[in-house]
Amino acid sequence: MDVFSYNYDRKQIKSGILHIGVGNFHRAHEEFFTNKLLEYPDQQHWGIHGAMLLPTDEHLYKSLIKQDNEYTLTVCGRNGQDKTYRIGSLVSLDWSLENPENILSAIADKDIRIITLTITEGGYNIEKSTGEFILNDEGVRHDLQNPHTPKTTFGYVAEGLRRRKSAGNGAVTILSCDNLQHNGDTARKSFMSFVKAQDTKLAAWMEENVTFPNSMVDRITPATRPDDVVRLNTKNGTNDEAPVYCEDFIQWVIEDKFIAGRPAWERVGVEFTDDVTAYENMKLSLLNASHTLLSYPSFLAGYRKVDDAMRDERIVRFVRTFMDIDITPYVPTPSNIDLDLYKQTLIERFGNRSVSDQIARLCFDGISKFPIYVMPNLIKMIQDDADLTRVAYLIAAYRHYLKYRTDDKGNSFEIAEPWMTQKDVNLIDSHEPTDFLSLSAFRSTDLMAADAFLKSYLTMVDAIKSNGAMSVLESIL
Ligand code: NAD
């Protein structure tokens, strides 16, 4: 298949953005838009310098370095037509375990005017019941005591900005691209809390010199597994050790609050607005919450791919009813959006055969996802005495998934919950199903006090244990 190469001289590109967390989503979304933008001669100072901060990034880092940070992105059409692009916008890349100084220098560099982030929902280190930054986290404690040799994103950004400030290199924007409600406000909370605890003079400088726009990001990007690498290279006739693939839908809506200038991303389809709240709310409440809603029941039913689960009418009905009955009343629609069409498109996107997203990816880190995607609307539903059957079923299915780690077909599986505490483990291990409702994921409300929810949840817990997840799902459709 043809690979569409970028149409600019890569040697002429200068970095104006430092990105932390060069995972698959970033490489399918911000790099995709920026790669197109760099074709404009007046935008060639907006290349991207990547930074990876985790030991687990080693393999991807080394693969990208070997190919001068270029990679292929295959965009999978809902019509079955795929298109592959060679992406050149990631002009340099550093891994903190190898080149920590390069990352700090880049944050301090005058030419870098935006720091973008995809460090996952849990990466902001926010306590779920209070919404406060956790100062008593091991990595954070290390960085507070060792400001010049940081380990966390917060420590890196603080030390880099300290150097930027003393060199007189001016203001910078920090732009979160993670799936969080008000991701800019959350990023501000995390970075400012850290810096206030470490260096009050730097905190005062940041108040004047750093902005944190909110943004809504959207493009389903599965993890690239080793068999995908072989599949994509065979199909594309390439030899790429780090290919990415994603769906054809893409959206990025950003608050226009860039203190040190920004790329003209609007030329390639990015939307700028004064208030991103309605877009964020719609996307997190419908797309991300539906992903979470379908993930645990589908996994327990034995499905491993989202498109396979979306061929099961029961799952489609479950998701669509959740969107229409449970969530729509709480979603003010942005003026240029047709909500019915948006929901229908979501169903089509989830069913995209050539994306074939992993359900395990959706199940990953539920502890961080529930508080953002599910709890805000559940709290409103409880207040409004709404029908809580579907959400009670979801939470019972989540417990079953975490506790028994065996699906309806008897297959056992591993779970991936990087932010699970020992207390969470004890609550899951407990024989008493009500204990599970004190999991850190649900701390924003007292689910035990919600009688209707509790009754429904306890019924679902027993029924899933006796009859399996799918049979219970059928009974509530
Ligand atoms: P990924 O696993 O491919 O990449 C995650 C990246 O985040 C890695 O580079 C990792 O090193 C970094 N990271 C994780 N925890 C970190 C921490 N504590 N500190 C610093 N860096 C950290 O995952 P992905 O698919 O790229 O998704 C990343 C995030 O992007 C999601 O959590 C979500 O917020 C957002 N997102 C993803 C999608 C998608 O479909 N994949 C869609 C919209 C938004």
Protein described:
InterPro entries: 6-PGluconate_DH-like_C_sf (IPR008927), 6PGD_dom2 (IPR013328), Mannitol_DH (IPR000669), Mannitol_DH/Oxidoreductase (IPR050988), Mannitol_DH_C (IPR013118), Mannitol_DH_CS (IPR023027), Mannitol_DH_N (IPR013131), NAD(P)-bd_dom_sf (IPR036291). There is one protein chain. With 477 residues, the chain is α/β, with parallel strands linked by helices. It folds into two domains: 3-273, Rossmann fold, CATH 3.40.50; 277-476, Orthogonal Bundle (N-(1-d-carboxylethyl)-l-norvaline Dehydrogenase, domain 2), CATH 1.10.1040. It has helices at residues 24-28, 30-37, 58-66, 100-108, 138-145, 153-166, 183-198, 200-209, 226-236, 277-301, 306-309, 313-327, 339-350, 359-363, 366-383, 389-404, 422-429, 451-467, 469-476, and strands at residues 3-4, 15-20, 47-52, 71-76, 82-87, 90-95, 114-117, 172-176, 210-211, 215-218, 244-247, 251-255, 271-273. The strands form three sheets. A six-stranded parallel β-sheet has the order 6-3-2-7-8-9, sandwiched between helices. A four-stranded mixed β-sheet has the order 1-5-4-11, with helices on both faces. The protein has a three-stranded mixed β-sheet with strand order 10-12-13, with helices on one face. The longest helix is centred in the middle third of the chain and has 25 residues, at 277-301. The mean pLDDT is 97. It binds nicotinamide-adenine-dinucleotide. Nicotinamide-adenine-dinucleotide (NAD) is lined by residues 21-26, 52-54, 57, 118-121, 123, 153, 178-179, 217, 219-221. Nicotinamide-adenine-dinucleotide (NAD) binds at residues 21-26, 52-54, 57, 118-121, 123, 153, 178-179, 217, 219-221.
